[in-house]
Amino acid sequence: MERPEFFEKYEFINRGISGQVTGEMLQRFQQDVIKESPDAVVILGGINDIAQNQGYISIPDIASNIRKMAEIALSYDIRVWLCSVLPASDFPWNPGLDPAAKVRELNRLILSISEDMKLTYVDYYSEMVDENGGLQVPIYTTADDLVHPNAAGFAVMESVLIKAIKGSL
């Protein structure tokens, strides 16, 4: 779901691609992000890896890809915020993976990376999770999707992100 108004109020440039995994993000990071010379980057990735959109990758390897992106940005004196992976309890396109525990594990690793690197952790997960470890349906996502935020979900993400950015500046 696109939410263009998310990008109107603030000067955000979105480099995400639907279905992209962290290995692909890492490969494109230098060319698609660093060459833009941003003042800051917000890194949100991992759910497509957990969904096995490009095959299996371990949770530690996903976290390693996220760490490498942060390290690259920092090496160019670009500020970095690391985001939790959004909650997920199932993937309609790849059912039976039981992602909730994997999401929690990856979020613990991302939090650890952010603490180790002294970066701000943007915790979308805690704001949007339901009792089953998924996005709250239909509040933050549609029942047929279960993963992508709707307008209310984006509003929560925007407020959490802006609060994190303002709090760390």
How would you describe the overall organization of this protein?
The chain has 169 residues and is mostly helical. Helix content is 43%, strand content 7%. It has helices at 22-33, 47-50, 59-75, 100-116, 124-128, 151-168; strands spanning 40-43, 79-83, 120-122. Strand 2 (79-83), helix 4 (100-116) and strand 3 (120-122) form a beta-alpha-beta unit. The longest helix has 18 residues, at 151-168. The protein is globular, with a radius of gyration of 15 Å.
* Shape call: globular
Going across the major beta sheet, what is the strand order?
Answer: 1-2-3
Say how many strands there are.
3
Main β-sheet description? 3 strands, parallel
**What class, by secondary structure content?**
mainly alpha
Q: What series of H and E elements makes up the topology?
A: HEHHEHEHH
Rounded average pLDDT: 89
Defining key terms:
three-stranded parallel sheet; mainly alpha
How is the topology of this model organized?
Elements: H1 22-33, E1 40-43, H2 47-50, H3 59-75, E2 79-83, H4 100-116, E3 120-122, H5 124-128, H6 151-168
Parallel strand pairs: 1-2, 2-3
Helix pairs in contact: 1-3, 3-4
Concise description?
This protein is mostly helical and 169 residues long. The chain has helices at 22-33, 47-50, 59-75, 100-116, 124-128, 151-168, and strands at 40-43, 79-83, 120-122.
